[in-house]
Amino acid sequence: MNVKKLADLDVAGKRVFIRADLNVPQDEAGNIVEDTRIRASLPSIRYCLERGAAVMVTSHLGRPAEGECRAEDTLAPIAVRLGELLGKPVRLIRDWVEGGFEVRAGEIVLLENCRCNKGEKKDNEELAKKMAALCDIYVNDAFGTAHRAEATTHGIARFAPVACAGMLMGAEIDALTKATENPARPLVAIVGGAKVSTKLTILKTLAQKVDQLIVGGGIANTFLLASGKRIGESLAEPELVKEAQAIMDMMKARGAEVPLPVDVVVADEVSALARANRIPVDEVGPHDRILDVGPKSSAKLAEIIAHAGTIVWNGPVGVFEHNQFAGGTKMMASAIAHSEAFCIAGGGDTLAAIAKFHIAQDIGYISTGGGAFLEFLEGKKLPAIAALEARFAD
Ligand code: 3PG
Ligand code: MG
Question: Which positions in this protein are listed as binding substrate (predicted)?
Fold first, then answer.
């Protein structure tokens, strides 16, 4: 991809505006639960600080209403964590669009939640111009938000004096290109999670490319329905059964496969105290909810993974947050960890599973993208990357 790279630029004494994706999960009190995205943003920030740039970093957090910044929208906890990781204080600047704040060379400030600014989501041109005027160099390092054309991810790139990709953005593009352009075969995709509808297009695209398509969670339930199984009260999308059927047919026609569970773990509720039962898939009762794959099924998945050349992983196969429904995802994680295949993984739940089962060091590349990761794999042109490409020549 033809984009300018931060590492090729002289940033000394320059005002550098970094759009990062620091949209991390928090608990009800606002504590950061998982900080992968913050850590992944450090190389670009350090690069600029060490070379004496005046560094402004911004990000969105959640999906706030524009024009106000409620307590739950603030980047304050992120400023604290960033400061801990950098070993220096990070000032948080509110109401920053019009400027009027100082940043010294070698200093970093965090600009409050960019989605609190009016016009951010709609990629407003006036807003983009004002933000561009704050800097000499615009750096997009927010791969996780690269599928959104917003003022800080897209518009600003048109008006900033220089627009380039940060180190994380560059690494993401390189790793995902490697896995998709000429993957070692067999190529195995794992797509789990709750809903088929949000992942339907990716499933269709993958069905044309991969050798095995492992589906998990609510997605697998919809596929089970499509193959004529009873799923009781399990989460599924019956209106998408035809689509699921079409995907299975597409795979079959290519001599490929969607392996479906032969046994499952069921309970009558999703909770930490729920009593789990392992049963053959044909014995699912009318009030059962399928919350994980059973041991026979996970052994089969592990075998597929063991023979893979490349693995693309997005989403768990069970409700792994609760230990009684974690067996399938755990077995899969361990198979991935032991496999020789190049594995790229992405998405919030996937990152949480990787952390829970301590396999981060065994994954070829962990993407910070969820939606962006999937859209890149679909072969879509991500608007934030397109905006950088448009500025490559000048
Ligand atoms: C994500 O968490 O997927 C990214 O930060 C993008 O967030 P969004 O889905 O609210 O645009
Ligand atoms: Mg999201």
Answer: 21-23, 37, 60-63, 115, 148
Nearest atom (ligand 1) to Cα of 148: 11
Cβ 200 vs Cβ 222: under 8 Å = no
Cα distances (Å, whole numbers) of residue 224 to 297, 316, 360: 13, 17, 31
- Ligand 1: residue whose CA is nearest its atom 7: 145
Q: What is the value of pTM for the model shown? A: 0.88
Could you tell me if 145 and 60 are in contact, meaning their C-beta atoms sit under 8 angstroms apart?
yes
Q: What angle do CA 232, 238, 239 make, to 5 degrees?
A: 165
- In percent, the amount of the chain with pLDDT more than 70 equals 100
Residue-wise burial string across 39-55, b where 16 or more C-beta atoms lie within 10 A, e elsewhere: ebbbbbbebbbebebbb
Residue 321, annotated as binding a ligand: yes
pLDDT at 106 over 90: yes
Banded model confidence at residue 200, pLDDT cuts 50, 70, 90: confident
Catalytic site residue from 46, 51, 118, 195: 195
What pLDDT does 250 receive?
A: 95
349 annotated as ligand-binding: yes
- DSSP lists the bridge partners of residue 266 as 277, 290
